[in-house]
Amino acid sequence: MPVLTNIGFLATCKEEGGQGEIHPIKNAAVAWEDDTISWVGREADLPSQYYNEDVFDADGKMVVPGLVDCHTHLAFGGWRPDEFAMRVQGKSYLDIANAGGGILSTVKETRRATEDELYKKASGFLKEMAELGVTTVECKSGYGLSVEDELKTLRVYKRLAEDQPMHIVPTFLGAHTIPPEYKDDRQAYIDLVIEDMIPEVAERELAEFCDIFTEESAFNIEESRRILTAAKAAGLTPKLHADQLTSCGGAELAAEVGAASADHLEKISDEGIAAMAKAGVVGVTLPLASLYTQEDPLNCRKLVDRGVEVAVATDFNPGSAPSYDLPLAMMLTCNQGRLSPTEVLKGTTIYAAKAIKRERKVGSIEKGKSADFAIIDAPDPDFWMYHYKGAQCLRSFRKGRKLF
Ligand SMILES: N=CN[C@@H](CCC(=O)O)C(=O)O
Ligand SMILES: [Zn+2]
């Protein structure tokens, strides 16, 4: 039975205790059988049966649960560096979208790409994410926006889940924006999402969640409510891109429909915070997106102090967040979101797992959970996020096997 010993600081990240309580154990060991954790505690208490030849040495470093990136748009065609250059010179994300760029330019490239091309590109990203300590990735569609191209993207995620050494959680995002061929008949596109896409996705079991971009410039509250209600009836759990650019009631809707999470939230209202806290909707902060769109970052402190559990993710996509560096998003959440490093760590482990309904399987180091961990070259979370640098993950395990 494999065992990881000589752990200087083990952040177990059990769920109870609130945002900042990571339940650490010093001088710890973790053992597992097959893909499941079987023992966690102080190394001095390790039962003798675990002293065998299958021993990994953490060299006195910190060990954390395999990180969970609970919001990405992993599979897409092309890139948009030209828009980045325009934004830093003063053009807004919305101006660029209104001029036909933004999401729609990636839709064009994604439709053009074959399933194999998308698969190959996305699997390259996953390899590099693994090197950062990430072991679970939520992946959205949303750059196909036709039945065929949405299914193509979701099939890529299905293949990645089967072939890649990473937990993959697929989300359908057909309501990302209105595609060009429906620009004069948005109602017809909404009907297509509800009557064709959602039933196909649900029947083929290609996604567990249905996300939507709720924004006046994308889908308004009434449209979002209709789509998410239909998705829920088909067995998909709602998620929302909410209150990113304007305060339009997205967080309140997330609470109303029982969403697993509401993400972005830079412009959330006080009523929205209260509604999410009451309904137990996880708030997902995406600091890379605020940074790259030159928007004010979300004040996560306000959410946590009012009882919302906050997760942290990259939002990796070719437009608003072209980086999958989750530790970078963590450091930004400390500096700009005003959370402490331990609060942030909880946000990329057990709370991130909650945002994708995987909290029973991943996100903490506890008996019965998937044996997913990362060895980090730091003595504790404070030092890790304070002395941010590349290559801090020394090794990672997923389902008890070396991932990186
Ligand atoms: N806000 C909507 N969707 C993405 C951006 C997608 C894109 O710009 O391509 C986001 O989460 O930021
Ligand atoms: Zn997103």
Automatic annotation (TrEMBL):
Gene3D superfamilies cross-referenced by the UniProt entry: Metal-dependent hydrolases, Urease, subunit C, domain 1
Binding site for Fe(3+): 71, 73, 241, 315
Protein name: Imidazolonepropionase
Classification via Pfam families: Amidohydro_1
Keywords assigned: Cytoplasm, Histidine metabolism, Hydrolase, Iron, Metal-binding, Zinc
Function (record text): Catalyzes the hydrolytic cleavage of the carbon-nitrogen bond in imidazolone-5-propanoate to yield N-formimidoyl-L-glutamate. It is the third step in the universal histidine degradation pathway.
Protein family: Belongs to the metallo-dependent hydrolases superfamily. HutI family.
Co-factor requirement: Zn(2+); Fe(3+)
Species: Fodinibius salipaludis
Record localization: Cytoplasm
GO cellular component, one term: cytoplasm
Major location category of this protein: cytoplasm
Entry GO MF terms: imidazolonepropionase activity; iron ion binding; zinc ion binding
Amidohydrolase-related domain location: 62-381
Residues the entry annotates as binding 4-imidazolone-5-propanoate: 80, 143, 176, 244, 320
Catalytic activity of the protein: 4-imidazolone-5-propanoate + H2O = N-formimidoyl-L-glutamate
Entry binding sites for N-formimidoyl-L-glutamate: 143, 317, 319
